[in-house]
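Troubleshooting log. The previous run stalled partway through. Resubmitting the same two chains, unchanged.
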Amino acid sequence: MFDRLALIGVGLIGSSIAHAVRKHGLASEIVATARSAETRETVARLGLADRVTETAAEAVEGADLIILCAPVGVFSALGAEIGPKLAPGAILTDVGSVKSAVVNDLSPHLPDHAHLVPGHPVAGTEESGPEAGFAELFEDRWCILTPPAGTDTKATDTLKDFWEALGSRVEIMEPGHHDLVLAITSHVPHLIAYNIVGTAADLEEVTQSEVIKFSAGGFRDFTRIAASDPTMWRDVFLNNKDAVLEMLGRFSEDLTALQRAIRWDDGDALYTLFSRTREIRRNIVEAGQDSPAPDFGRTHGQDD
Amino acid sequence: MFDRLALIGVGLIGSSIAHAVRKHGLASEIVATARSAETRETVARLGLADRVTETAAEAVEGADLIILCAPVGVFSALGAEIGPKLAPGAILTDVGSVKSAVVNDLSPHLPDHAHLVPGHPVAGTEESGPEAGFAELFEDRWCILTPPAGTDTKATDTLKDFWEALGSRVEIMEPGHHDLVLAITSHVPHLIAYNIVGTAADLEEVTQSEVIKFSAGGFRDFTRIAASDPTMWRDVFLNNKDAVLEMLGRFSEDLTALQRAIRWDDGDALYTLFSRTREIRRNIVEAGQDSPAPDFGRTHGQDD
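Second attempt completed without errors. Output:
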């Protein structure tokens, strides 16, 4: 499908792309680079790429597909570095969790002969780094592409074929709408998970050891998300500020109403909400977006 | 260990106790009852008990261990019903998620010849009802016992042995402290999970179908908890009001600080929190309270 794929940044997503591209034979050559020498060495040791370069500028030379898999906070600098080196007809994409900021940061550096089609595979685990990747990560997950107005539709179609070959379903969306949707389905959930884990850690009346011992009451679910990559998530919040603040405002407003219902013994209000939310879970499981097994399929007993 | 175990209420926890008691041979006879005729029929059909009675008063007759597995909101009425029927030396316990309210609701009805040792197995799944139970639910989980001051230590020891025989580890705690610990490790996590699922359902700019499709970005984790039993959780919040409001106040305060950090581009504050929370996850996994597998061990690809 591609002659040369350049991966800029090789963490969980970058390494999963490398595994999946190899598995499905989608590129003749994979060239990879990463900012830290340690990551580059790991990539070479694991054989994730055919070639590892020291700089992004070298990596993109002659590549027909370039995927930025670094935290979005460095995209503007990356764009300036690689823009002049992009080959004619090259498709530049990324896997960042925000999209308006990515369009703004990369567009100014794009030569006329290359195509910018930002992307976001909605998939991941709490692990990070080049050793965390696996080929199946994108299977049955959605990948959102947000080509800016005027993008060559052939480039978008080619990238769509690429993600479908990795096992994903693809949706085309306007960047601003993407940022709003992901603010509620991903960014605010991460923020409140990080927040409650922080709140629990700071308590004086309850020890950290108690928080850990009795975490199976619900808390442990939040700690998984709150173990996600700190740099990546810092950059997400700084680069999707408006949508996150908007959704966070609604969340807090609703939470205040719940708080009030508890204070005033309004059991009906609580029951009504608690019944309504079950259906959404059912729909998610039916849509194949989560495991139908109780407790995410966590093992109990011997295997635990 | 016991001659006759009476289970009052047979949902996820009650049916799991029945399975586990059978598996480990801990009672010669299991008598069960439930408020709804439908549940009683299911219990009989599944053979979860040796005998199914229509009322709680009948169920407890001659039982040496009585476990209340109904929502805590009905405990006061249940206590009035069964108190006069409790056999000499009987141990009355429960599995409710709040403990001060349980002590207050049950103590007035307890005859001098019986023992009240409230309990809380910190275990569960998002499923509910008598068909959801399984014998391994309590293995390697903690069960907290909160005997009121003056309780016969032999009764507490016997109940401790019982839970250990089911595979649990047991901790003795003061009821008020239990309620504070569980407010942060279970109640507030449930409340904010219910809340964000409600917030997402109410949006106009983002469709419900989008919320479902792109839930793998984090949101789906919250929907599992928000699919828990509505009656049980309504009663938890109404019966642990002070501790929940206290912990919720701290959560909201911390969230407001995070919101401010995002608004003012304070990346360092975000990064500091996001790095700190990873360690708690590691500790929970090391303590055997969650799966070490990425993504809770959810399957990816073919099995999905």
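Takeaways: Chain A touches chain B through 118 residues (CB under 8 Å). Residues 2-173 of chain A form a domain with the Rossmann fold fold (CATH 3.40.50.720).
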